[in-house]
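User: Hi! I have a protein structure encoded as tokens and I'd like to know what sequence might fold into it. I'm fairly new to this, so please keep things simple.
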């Protein structure tokens, strides 16, 4: 079995425990040994490295290959695709655990329940008994966060569709299909933002992103972030 650890990639022979009272399922024995299927410490290391050092998965695995065999890193088994898939599943499981959905599989999270709301904004029943002040929201967009169309979109499987800050994809697409689009045209030659929004961008899946946040603290509102499909649409 190939085991990926924070110190390298190793191949070991595995002898499954068959003692009386032991866990009969092999994947549970691996989890009890803190292997998922890579080591838990390795997945934590990769997550922190990606967040703090902005290290890509390819660069991180290349570093791991050099730690394993610095003379011939190409001889190390290529586990890059397994790293991408496993790290994504690990982040999703840890996120469910942090929000209280990791130990009871019968309770499924609802819309926006895997994200944090602004802790200082007034919330009746949570941090204040009654409405004493009014919540204020702001909406802003980023028109440079473009996302190109995938060659195989069926491979893009969402693990938390609508459970965080992004809206549910199916409901959002249904809203866009029924919404009436009004095209604006600007006759100002020095300001082409409106005209540019009507240009054809068939190679892009999203032309930007918009979010709603609390006006006082700037924290995103749960289940309120959407993708722009065409300009500000």
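Assistant: Happy to help. Inverse folding works backwards from shape to sequence: for each of the 233 positions I chose a residue that suits the local structure. Here it is:
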């Amino acid at each position: 079995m190939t085991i990926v650890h924070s110190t390298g990639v190793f191949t070991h022979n595995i002898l499954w425990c068959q003692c009386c009272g032991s866990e009969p399922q092999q994947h549970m024995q691996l989890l009890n040994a803190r292997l998922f299927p890579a080591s838990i410490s390795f997945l934590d290391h990769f997550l922190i490295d990606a967040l703090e050092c902005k290290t890509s998965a390819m660069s991180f695995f290349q570093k791991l290959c050099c730690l394993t065999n610095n003379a011939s890193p190409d001889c190390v088994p290529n586990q890059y695709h397994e790293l991408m898939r496993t790290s994504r599943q690990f982040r999703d499981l840890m996120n469910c655990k942090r929000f209280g959905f990791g130990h009871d599989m019968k309770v499924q999270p609802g819309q926006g329940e895997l994200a944090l709301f602004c802790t200082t904004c007034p919330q009746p029943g949570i941090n204040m008994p009654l409405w004493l002040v009014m919540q204020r929201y702001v909406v802003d967009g980023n028109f440079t966060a473009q996302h190109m169309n995938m060659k195989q979109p069926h491979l893009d499987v969402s693990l938390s569709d609508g459970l965080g800050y992004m809206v549910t994809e199916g409901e959002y697409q249904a809203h866009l299909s029924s919404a009436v689009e009004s095209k604006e045209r600007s006759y100002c030659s020095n300001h082409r933002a409106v005209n540019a929004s009507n240009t054809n961008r068939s190679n892009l899946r999203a032309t930007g992103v918009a979010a709603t946040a609390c006006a006082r603290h700037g924290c995103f509102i749960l289940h309120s972030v959407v993708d722009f499909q065409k300009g500000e649409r």
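A useful reference point when you look it over: The first helix runs from residue 26 to 32. Feel free to ask if any position seems puzzling.
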